[in-house]
């Protein structure tokens, strides 16, 4: 993919009693930790497609499996680390209730991933290994050495998850393309930054919805951003649509579709925020990740302009 009262009329979700949500397909997609892997796999394929690269199925499959393992493990560890059930979200309780099944799934997924890694491009594998090393170092830090109350109060504790997701997630999905086509790094850099902003916004909206009221223990960057979510979303959408227009005029490859997808996702997240009172908490959480699947809507355009 973290405080003073909300400012500028920002109204967050009120705490809801813990109850078993309806097992709709959207809820199960979220509870089974399939949301983030779906987003990662789709964007991995879409980035390559818009760059004129025909990516084999193995990097896309490896991305899905690796992200699922990471998110499932993170939710299991979060559930174990929390002091009381009242502090857990439904996804954490679901993972805790089905801990054995998820642990078995992680073991099987690790075997599948090991088989897929042997078929990956060498340059991409090298970059992904470096990124994975940094990610696991951060993963180890937040779960083995949690922030102390004093550090939280002073704002000196570790980089919040919202910003970490905004760094690692986009980097991972752009690697399979830029590793094979290094000359595209400069061209795709603005799109990567916009996607990083969208991923960060996704996490910030989720945090704001799930942590209403006082959030004094959050990182100062999270406190600032949650006070200005609407403005940040509008800025991201405007920048994305502007970049899409510029790239459409000056680039022969349909990379402008990446910026267009980012703009659509930022707009959908803001729309969800305005309609949050009409959705159950678990469906709102899943819909926030569903908003990042905008490339699926642009696939027909990608096929036309990639010819």
Task: Jot down its keywords.
about 300 residues, mainly alpha, 14 helices, about 70% helix
**Into which percent range does the helicity of residues fall?**
over 70%
Order of helices and strands: HHHHHHHHHHHHHH
Oligomer: single chain
> Major β-sheet, in short?
none
Number of strands: 0
Distance between the termini: 34 Å
- The SS-based structural class is mainly alpha
Low-confidence residue ranges? 1-18, 148-157
What is the molecular shape?
globular
Radius of gyration: 19 Å
The helix tally amounts to 14
Mean pLDDT: 83
Q: Beta fraction of the residues?
A: under 5%
Give the number of domains.
1
Q: What's the arrangement of secondary structure elements?
A:
Elements: H1 25-31, H2 35-50, H3 57-81, H4 90-97, H5 99-117, H6 122-144, H7 149-154, H8 161-180, H9 185-210, H10 220-227, H11 229-250, H12 256-274, H13 281-290, H14 295-305
Could you characterize the architecture of this molecule?
With about 300 residues, this protein is mostly helical. It has one domain (about 25-305). The protein contains 14 helices and no strands. It has helices at about 25-30, 35-50, 55-80, 90-95, 100-115, 120-145, 150-155, 160-180, 185-210, 220-225, 230-250, 255-275, 280-290, 295-305. The longest helix has 26 residues, at about 185-210. It is globular.
């Amino acid at each position: 993919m973290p405080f003073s009262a909300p400012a500028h009329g920002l109204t967050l979700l009120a705490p809801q009693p813990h109850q078993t949500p309806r097992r709709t397909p959207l809820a199960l997609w979220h509870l089974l930790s399939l949301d983030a892997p779906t987003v990662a796999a789709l964007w991995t394929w879409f980035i390559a497609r818009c760059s004129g690269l025909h990516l084999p199925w193995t990097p896309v499959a490896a991305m899905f499996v690796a992200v699922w393992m990471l998110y499932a493990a993170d939710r299991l560890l979060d559930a174990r680390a929390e002091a009381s059930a009242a502090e857990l979200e439904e996804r954490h309780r679901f993972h805790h209730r089905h801990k054995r099944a998820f642990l078995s799934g992680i073991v099987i997924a690790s075997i599948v991933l090991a088989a897929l890694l042997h078929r990956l491009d060498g340059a991409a594998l090298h970059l992904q290994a470096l990124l994975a090393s940094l990610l696991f170092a951060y993963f180890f830090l937040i779960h083995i050495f949690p922030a102390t109350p004093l550090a939280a109060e002073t704002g000196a504790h570790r980089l919040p998850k919202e910003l970490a997701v905004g760094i690692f997630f986009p980097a991972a999905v752009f690697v399979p393309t830029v590793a094979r086509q290094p000359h595209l790094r400069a061209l795709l850099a603005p799109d990567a930054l916009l996607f990083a902003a969208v991923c960060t916004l996704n996490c910030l909206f989720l945090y704001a919805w799930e942590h209403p009221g006082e959030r004094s223990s959050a990182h100062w960057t999270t406190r600032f951003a949650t006070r200005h979510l609407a403005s940040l979303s509008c800025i991201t959408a405007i920048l994305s649509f502007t970049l899409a227009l510029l790239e459409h005029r000056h680039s022969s490859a349909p990379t402008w579709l990446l910026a267009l997808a980012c703009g659509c996702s930022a707009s959908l997240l803001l729309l969800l925020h305005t309609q949050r009172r009409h959705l159950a908490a678990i469906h709102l959480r899943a819909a926030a990740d569903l908003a990042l699947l905008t490339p699926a809507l642009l696939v027909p355009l990608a096929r036309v302009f990639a010819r």
